[in-house]
Design goal:
Length: 131
């Protein structure tokens, strides 16, 4: 028989946006031990890591506008493509987090899929533009 401690009955709901990452992981473990669903919390914890990394990703997505010949007459088109890629990342990131919250995709995938996809898109655009 396992011992049941009173705090397993009194676990509170967690708002991950208000909790630092280093405090969030132990609380997720406590919720998991109490038998509560933690996929939403785990996705939010991973997104606390992948979210700030998007500041590295955005200049990469905007590089499509910066590289290339300025006299080619396509600067406006390249700027629009760069803005579209940034907005598409925002939409894809929120979509994947919503899918993670519903339990459709695993939490790790919900937090990192959009970042990794657009990192690959940005790198491929950058490599293709340099040639």
């Amino acid at each position: 028989a396992t011992t049941v401690v009173p705090r397993q009955f009194t676990t509170t709901s967690i708002t991950p946006a208000w909790i630092p990452l280093w405090d969030l992981w132990p609380q997720i473990a406590e919720q998991r031990a109490a038998g509560k669903p933690v996929d939403t919390l785990t996705a939010a914890a991973w997104h606390k890591i992948s979210g700030p990394l998007s500041t590295v990703l955005m200049p990469l997505l905007g590089a499509v506008a910066a590289f290339g010949l300025a006299r080619s007459g396509r600067l406006f088109v390249r700027a629009v493509i760069g803005m579209f890629l940034g907005f598409a990342f925002f939409v894809a990131d929120n979509f994947m987090l919503a899918m993670g919250n519903f339990g459709t995709v695993p939490p790790l995938m919900a937090a990192w899929a959009a970042f990794l996809l657009f990192l690959l898109i940005g790198e491929s655009v950058l490599i293709r533009t340099e040639e």
